[in-house]
Specification:
The chain is mainly β. Helices cover 0% and strands 69% of the residues.
């Protein structure tokens, strides 16, 4: 039994039970560990309870902490109000108010959705889909992307692999061929293009484009329409754009 009620400092500690206000260790192994503050290079225990914990490698059966910072966490059950991990978390069950794993996918995966609720500006030359439209939006993570309503595009701030889908509701007064192009950068070549022949004086045509691929930080996700230069295209309500980060 090793019992420390004030400050515990050691290079190597192996014990059945450890209780401490503040502990600083190089290697720590215990069956039961309870501490307000603990700093350790390697941490292995059956049961861990701490208010603040900083560790390079932490392995436990049951882990409970208010603030936990570690390079690696391995546990059957991990519970923490704030959990920051550099490399990865391995656990059967993880409970946290905020979970951040550096250089890894955020949990849950970020997504963004914009739905246009009014008709846009009629145009026969190239323009971004959504120009002149009112919209509703939902963005799950502003750390990964945001919506630029002036330019009608998603501004991507976190590099990764994304899925970007555009559902365009198109109206024209006469039969014409419309080119839709989907971009993942600006300026630059489109990642995906499609031509569709539209005559929608009675009913609108709906065209869907989906691109899956890499986006760099600072790039944009948007789509354009182009006509033959003589027939105006109008984007109608129901047009939407969806972006999801896959990894």
């Amino acid at each position: 039994m090793a019992d420390f009620f004030a400050v515990a400092a050691a290079y190597d500690l192996s014990a059945k039970s450890v209780s401490s206000m503040t502990g600083v260790f190089v290697d720590l192994s215990a069956t039961n560990f309870s501490s307000v503050n603990v700093i350790s290079t390697e941490f292995s225990a059956t049961n861990v309870s701490a208010v603040n914990s900083i560790s390079t490698s932490l392995s436990a059966t049951t882990l409970s902490a208010v603030n936990l910072i570690s390079k690696e966490v391995s546990a059957v059950t991990a519970s923490s109000t704030h959990l920051l991990v550099e490399s990865g978390v391995s656990a059967n069950a993880v409970s946290a108010v905020s979970l951040v794993v550096e250089d890894a996918m955020p949990i849950p995966a970020p997504w963004g959705y914009v739905h246009f609720t009014t008709a846009g500006t009629a145009q026969d030359t190239i323009q971004n889909i959504g120009i002149g439209c009112s919209k509703t939006e939902n963005i799950s993570s502003s750390d990964d992307f945001s919506w630029d309503d002036t330019n009608k595009r998603f501004n991507v701030s976190a590099a990764g692999t994304y899925e970007f889908t555009v559902n365009a509701v198109l109206m024209v007064a006469a039969t014409t061929t419309i080119t839709l192009e989907l971009y993942s950068t600006y300026p630059g070549a489109s990642k995906l293009a499609a031509d569709t022949r539209v005559h929608s004086s009675i009913d609108a045509d709906i065209v869907t484009l989906t691109y899956v691929g890499p986006f760099t930080a600072g790039s944009y996700a948007y789509a354009t329409t182009t006509d033959d230069g003589g027939t105006d295209i109008t984007i109608y309500p129901g047009t939407s754009m969806l972006i999801k980060r896959l990894k």
